[in-house]
Give the backbone structure.
Amino acid sequence: MIKTILPGSTIGIIGGGQLGRMLAMSAKEMGYKIIILDPSTECCGKIFSDKFINAEFSNFEKIEELCKLSDVVTFEFENIDATALARLEKKYNLVQSSKVLKITQHRYFEKEFARSLNIPTVKYICIEENVNIDIKKTYLMKTLRFGYDGKGQKRISKKEDIEQHTILEEIVSLDKEISVVAVKDKFEVQIVAVVENEHRNNILYRSKIPTSATNEQENLAIEYTKRILNNIDYYGVLTVEFFISDGKVIFNEIAPRVHNSGHITMQSATKSQFRAHIEAICGLRVGKIINKETTLYNILGQDEEYFKNLITKKQGYLHLYEKEPRKNRKIGHINFYGDIHLGGHNEE
Ligand code: AMP
């Protein structure tokens, strides 16, 4: 059973990017102490940590040091060694199970897991070494591991273009994309938000609550997400991305952590995904969360000036992560109440 960790105790966070930063901000608001581990001393979460450990995510000794010093440990970065984590969770308080990490780090395991729970996925072919298959149509080839924001993805239609350690996915027409941000605490699963997401160049561009999906589609996505959370040993926020294609709700992927689309909950929700996650991993009760109509825009390096200028004229809730504004790098987001449409920024 999950331990109760009260404010004043120490939370360890593996990863000091914007997710780690916003988790730390929420935890500090509640009176927790924070230790962050990150390979970069420049990481944007460091400023909200009471102690900072500068180490690679592969440095087992340093991750163990973080565990020793923390009452509970969480991660914002999911590409950590799941086998190392499995060893650590026997001795320390890590509540986002390494088994879940093993599944979600591998696109084939992840899809097989969804299918085992009778959750529809796109059709796929897993390419492992020495498998000699032929293809007769265009597929989306994705690396089995370490893919995010469309990285490691390519459309291919010839046998010769198939690369090893990939999965070939059938390309579906997208009516829309939605994500379900959910949280599991020691009592129950609660839905933090159901969000509609629009991508540009494979990077999340705009998110919106409520979605334009039908109630039936939303309810199905929620039911699938609950089914996932009820079948894994996991506490905290977990996000499931879905495609809506020809009216059908299709599983895309799981993020066993807080999610970019969930940044909208900093304004839309009675409790943000960050606070919900901290409460859940600390064995507290999250309770019911209600959302109101809100729009999120991600801010990329090239958009910084546009948005800084915008809030001199238009009411919004700007969140900047104090990151170097490089092109196409996520450096912040902005939330607006209502259904807001902006244009003219973030385009090539
Ligand atoms: P992923 O990294 O798998 O989430 O993919 C990034 C984005 O590419 C998704 O949010 C979709 O917009 C698009 N995409 C991914 N897989 C497919 C697919 N099988 N069919 C159509 N679009 C896809």
In short: The pocket of adenosine monophosphate is lined by residues 122, 140, 147, 150, 169, 171-172, 174, 177, 199, 202, 241, 252-253 (CB under 6 Å).
